[in-house]
Amino acid sequence: MEKKENTFITTQEHKKTRSFYYLILIQSFAAMLWLLLIPKEPANAVFLGYSIRRLLLLIPMVFPVFVVLFVKYKLKKSETWQKWFRKSGNKAKLAMILVLGGSLTALAVWSFIFLYHFLSLYNDIGFYNRLMPMLISYLLVGIEMVVFVTTAFYRIPNERKALHLFPWKTFLAMLLIISLCVLVIEITNWGQGFTSIVIVSLGVPLLEGQIWYVAGILLMTAFAALAWNTIPSGQRPDLIKRRDAAVFLALWLIAIVLWTSLPLPEHNYFAPSERPPNLEKYPFSDAEQYDYNSLHVLYGNSENFVISKPFYVSFLAVLHAIVGLDYVRMVFLQTLVIALFPGILYLIGKELQSRLGGIAIALLAIFREINSIQASTMANVSNSKLLLSGMLAALLASLLVYVTIRWFKNPGKKVSGHAFIIGGIIGAFILTRLQAMALVPFGILLVVVRYFKNIKSILISILLLVLAVGLVLAPVLIRNHAITGVYWVDNPSSTGGLYRYFIFEDDYEIEIPKADTMEEQLNRNISVISSAFSRGFGDILQFMMDHFMRNEISSMLIMPVRLGNQIQFLDLLIINQPFWAETYTQLNVLNIFVLIVNSIIIALGFSYAFQRKPRAVLCVIGFHVIYNLSSAVVRLAGWRFILPADWIIYTFYALGLVELITAFFRAAFKWDLKILVSNWVANPPETVAKPFTLRGYLVYGLLFLFIGGFIPLREALFPSLVPEYDREDVCGEFISAAESSQMPQITDNIAVYCEDGKTDVLMGYGVYPRFFDEGEGYFDRPHDYFFGKQDYSHLVFRLIGKEVSSVFIKTNREDLKFPNGALVYVLAQDMNKTGAEYVLVAGEEPELIISETILNSAKMLNDHAGEQ
Questions:
Q1: Which residues contact 529 (CB under 8 A, 6 or more apart)?
Q2: How many CA atoms lie within 13 A of 385 on its CB side?
Q3: What are the C-alpha distances in Å from 472 to residues 249, 537, 708?
Q4: What confidence tens digit (pLDDT) does each residue in 757-808 have?
Q5: pLDDT tens digit sequence for 621-642
Q6: Model pTM greater than 0.90?
């Protein structure tokens, strides 16, 4: 009797073990049979009509069979194995091996099954189909290893230990709000119409397959944690003491690996396809302007103009200082920073619900960015592969929401440093997205709600918040006022025509005053907008609602609603076309069902989070609404304009998925995950933030001052890197290059042209050189001599020098030696129409480029002289 008690494997466990052996044997042989029944490949047949690749796949499929037979034999014949299993504590060790090995195997196989499609790993779908028997076999083995621990070794308690009250009121209220929004959109058609100011495309959605994948990951993670916790606590180690830091780091690394594994967009409006002479990727449009401004900051040549989005421009300048001008390296460094976004979403999910909820949000964010990168060539997007401010703004927004949640969780009415930090984040946000100015009154409202009825704490916190905002904005305001005479945080020219958004459809007989100076432009905006509101408030309110609902549609349809659209199954796993550009959901029973299910999941996530943290959840929703309104009021909607706030909707969707999973375990097995694996599925214990010391305020204050003062500090503390020059220096370089060129006879012509007072003489660093052949260009605009399609070939580049300029020169040479960032000399008399006449690219072998206009004229003169 004593011997039986010391035996590791009891009679009951022996029966379970034998069943486990037989199950693995049966399913392994079934998987091999499945593989052999897949239609053969006669062209590649080597044995019995099967290809060598097919036969090689049988080897890993036999491996589980070999392991089972080997273990069974050793347990029967080997005394060493029998002694090990009889030793006290080894049962727990084996259980840990099975849980870790099984869960990692299942997660790896599950990931490969889906990532194969998500990342387009291999184009041979036939090979993928032949892999499926092996993959499914290993997936089942991994799951069964975990199940074996919970059935043969240890038991999961199924007693309900806590009563969970369903938040019916909040749940139904959220469902009602969603239903009313859908009804209003259907009745009014708000958000679905087209105006020339609306950015039509909706945001990039998730794919159905990605949601299935995340749901599977959550199920397996929850069950693995459940199995791990069945092992007696004294016999299992606490794997990770700082689990939040470990999960954050893991999510950051996963995001980096997956995002950087995807190629740069082949062609995107903000990153067009590579062109001669260098066949390199350069930014364009808004992205080019931000990057170009950052280079001016880097070279110390930004003193005379106001910089738009100074925080993002400063960020790019830092990246350029580290890696130079290479676009690929710039994108990589930007990705390292943007990849913090999923980690911060994890922390938000942990605070609102659980660690598992945070993982769900983070994974959805990672896959949405994958979709955005893959859609770069086919749609309007903003992602980590483009030099746009959208993802950095989303990162700031998530950080702002996280600090706000932590602030509202912090007990007591004493003033903490949270208001100061929030003010600094809002200030940085304003320097990234001008519309974020609406967050200042929102932040003040947060202070009032947080310290309600405590007047002293309210006043101190408002002062701290405004002080932090001021520390960030003050250097920018002072600098911009010195240049324009206006205290404004952005380039006034970029908002000089803001009033037109409000009189786009009706001018309301408002007299538009002339505005020559920046101050007059700002005053004109205020005057015209005020008059438009007073005379056409109803119309303005309608277009605001139109754009507001557009943003809500974009946010809601991140969770796809198209199963009833009769699409191919693989389209649920792969981005093939920009189906989301417009409202893509067809009105049918299946799509309505999917919309209802999505709404229920969102309402579940919201209601349970609200039950735990009502004020914090309202702040999160409030941020989404305020940011949406700040975009809608200036008639901007869709894709990158709501990107910093649309993640809030799929945040509650992810939390709802976790609630469904916990409900499934509770209903099917009577396992309460919130008790049994409380460290992953329940809300973590409250932690009290340490009060800020004077040193803390000083450190953060200096950081905020540095954020806003980066550009003025660069200008004041470091010398300019752009070359000083005069006409004589430039002319000398051109003459020297002409004398050593293959056309020394043009030396005198260049000297005369250069010394002509009408000729503009420029010198600086040439960036983004692009060659366009005859008939090539980015636009069908003949009046655009730089990027419009022309009936002549030309080279275009930007110049960083004492005079800021875009340069084009008519030339048929696309094999030019023009390294990006090379020192360049330019001679031109009418840059806006005829372009430059001479361009000299400095280097070991200087490249002298002569306009085709001059070359053709010289040829005509030579021909005429020859005739005489």
A1: 498, 499, 502
A2: 26
A3: 29, 34, 4
A4: 999 999 999 999 999 999 999 999 889 999 999 999 999 999 999 888 899 9
A5: 999 999 999 998 887 888 889 9
A6: yes
